[in-house]
Write a structure and sequence with these properties.
With 125 residues, this protein is an alpha/beta fold. It has a single domain, classed as Response regulator (Rossmann fold, 3-Layer(aba) Sandwich), CATH 3.40.50.2300. 43% of the residues lie in helices and 21% in strands. The protein is built from five helices and five strands. Helix 2 runs parallel beside helix 3. It is globular and about 30 Å long. The chain starts with 5 loop residues before the first strand and ends with a helix.
């Protein structure tokens, strides 16, 4: 059976979070693409997609994570891509994220195990 890498796009403007996510996921069968904002993420998704999972922060410079999710969901090429939204503002953001089309929500700070489990949950069996 052929070994498959899962393609994951991460949209987060915090370099420490990007480094953490990248370090954790690169230990598994993941190919990671990092984007510092929603606009570059949307462009990368349209240009280099499809991705297997998209991880995006709620608070991004320019377009918000919610704007990015709505853009992803309105594109026929990426509309079914699983999305994990991360944020330190769970009480405010969680319902809005789900309404916009996020599949899962992870509150910051999260553990490495929570991150790995969330990404694994979004991938096909």
């Amino acid at each position: 059976m052929e070994h498959r890498s899962w393609r994951v796009l991460v949209a987060d403007d915090d370099p420490a979070i990007c480094m953490l996510i990248g370090t954790v996921l690169r230990r598994g069968p993941y190919e990671i693409t990092m984007c510092p904002d929603a606009e570059s993420a949307a462009t990368t998704i349209e240009r280099d997609g499809p991705f297997d999972v998209i991880i995006c922060d709620f608070m991004l410079p320019g377009l918000s994570g919610l704007d990015l999710i709505e853009r992803i969901r309105s594109n026929k090429e990426s509309c079914r891509t699983p999305i994990l939204m991360i944020s330190g503002h769970a009480s405010i953001v969680m319902e809005r994220a789900k309404s916009a089309g996020a599949d899962l929500f992870l509150n910051k700070p999260f553990t490495l195990t929570q991150l790995r489990n969330a990404v694994a949950t979004l991938l096909p069996a």
